[in-house]
């Protein structure tokens, strides 16, 4: 069987289908939720589009309450699962093309979701098409399960696992090649600074940075009042000379508006981004502000800024197999009416007790309240597990990269929902990771290679 030729033959149809998926803005949109669309219409429409491909091509499909669904191939009592997702993070700013119009530029496919995860999930779907078109009958069913809330709360996929029988094994095409056999624990904390004072000048009136806990904020803005606005602006411009981010300011009588543009990145490795919010806080902490506003920005500047390993909080920890604990400061909000709110997200290896993170945060903040809002334990499948070995063998054979080894990451994928689950593709080691960033792209050749790898992998793991 020439898997690569089979994938190449499907290229025009794959591209046409991906175009349809990218055109749907499927970021979580609960503000427009209805009984029909519990997460807003966008995520449901992207799911429906996926399932429509399955119906068109003669597969069994099922839509569960417009929040999760599956496309199934084969027969048997057990099934092997492939868990992808049709939602995306919000488009965000900084795009040079329309994020919802698939742009083909040389080998690159540009658009929100091309890399995370519409492109790879669709490649996995096309792998099912290859099996079916070539008369390959697996010894057990294969289900491509499509979630619609992966980027936030996993609402749909959790419902799936509550209501459907568990798979005998599976992979998630929602990360990188070669293969991820371990995922760090993932926990988020909300830190609340209460407002306790009447209006004073100078004052921090508002502060805003970040869209989601799992992204490094690209943009931050603050509004403050001062008796000497020009002095503040001058200090801000001086500050900008010393940091790797850019910024701008506006004044209107004693009101000053400051903005910083950093670099967005996935929250699992905050080092790859530049956090606009913590940079802006570190400037504001040097200015004279009202006590509550001052406490808010000083905490961020002194305890959270430029510290992806949480050294200043005393939380730095490295496990030999699973690597470093990391911290992302994903959201920072403040108004002079309501006070401040910070959302920090930690990815932790085996050996870290998340309760200790809460204690250290609380100790560092004094007057603020710290609350854990989510937690997932670390996940690990042994490197000599037959599933890991089979998938690695197919990957190595098709890419020629015989020395690549399975790895442990900070990103949480759906793989952790399966006792016997790993993440497998579709980002190749040679390709730039643009997930969650502006101008997200994935090379078409990578996606066709992923399709070919997935087809052979699925045939291999279900042939006995
Ligand atoms: Zn994803």
TrEMBL record:
The keyword Ligase does not apply. Keywords: Dipeptidase, Hydrolase, Metal-binding, Metalloprotease, Protease, Zinc. One of its GO terms (biological process) is proteolysis. InterPro entries: ArgE/DapE_CS, Bact_exopeptidase_dim_dom, M20A_pepV-rel, Peptidase_M20, Peptidase_M20A. It comes from the Bacteria. Belongs to the peptidase M20A family. This is Xaa-His dipeptidase. It comes from Fructilactobacillus florum 8D.
